[in-house]
Structures are given as structure tokens and as C-alpha cells.
Amino acid sequence: MGAAAAVIVRKQREIVDCYRAAHATAPTQARDPGELGVEHSMIFKGLVRRAVLRDVGGGRYYLDEPAWEAFGNSRRRLVLMALILALLAVIVVSLGVQRSH
Question: How many separate domains does the chain show?
Fold first, then answer.
């Protein structure tokens, strides 16, 4: 599952990088994803759902940098929480094994 998540994150970054390279970071600079070589994939649609890519109509979108930053921060917090829970699980299992000896 970790490899699949890494692929999704990489593809999200690639899409964001395309919009940055095109300077499509404001409504007036919105671009059609097709002209940037970006497909309307599930990953693209996920970025739209999360308001990282904003639809201005006419099939044009722009990158909302603050939303991308917030999305990255929430993803990092989620990973940190998962690591903390995994560490706690290891500690609980270790204590249980030590008590049984």
C-alpha cells in the first residue's frame, strides 16, 4: 500500500508542477489541463475535489498554492499519526511479550 500511495503523491506533484510551470496560479492564468498535457484522471479529479485545482469554467483550472500547501500539511500529519500509532503498537506488543516471560 505504501508504494501505491507514493505513486499517487508523485502524480499529484507532477500535475501541480505542470500548473506551476505554466504560471497557472491565479484565476486569470487558468489553463485547460489538455494544453498542459494533464489528463482528467482520478488523481486530477481528487485535486479538484480538494480545491487544490480550482475550476474557473470553460474547462480551465488554476493551482491554488495555499490549498496545495494545506493539503501537503494534512498529508504529513496523517503520516505522522500513522507512524506514532505503529510505534505505540510495537511498544504494547513488546510489553506484553516481556510480561509473559
Answer: 1
Domain coverage including residue 86:
2-99
Residue by residue, what is the 3-state secondary structure of the chain? CHHHHHHHHHHHHHHHHHHHHCCCCCHHHCECHHHHCCCCCHHHHHHHHCCCEEEEECCEEEECHHHHHHHHHHHHHHHHHHHHHHHHHHHHHHHHHHHCC
Q: What is the pLDDT of residues 47-94, one digit of tens each?
A: 999 999 999 999 999 999 999 999 886 666 666 677 777 788 777 787
Looking at every residue in the chain, the average pLDDT score rounds to 87
Burial of 51: CB neighbours in 10 Å, binned 0-12, 13-18, 19+: middle
Whole-structure pTM over 0.85, yes or no? no
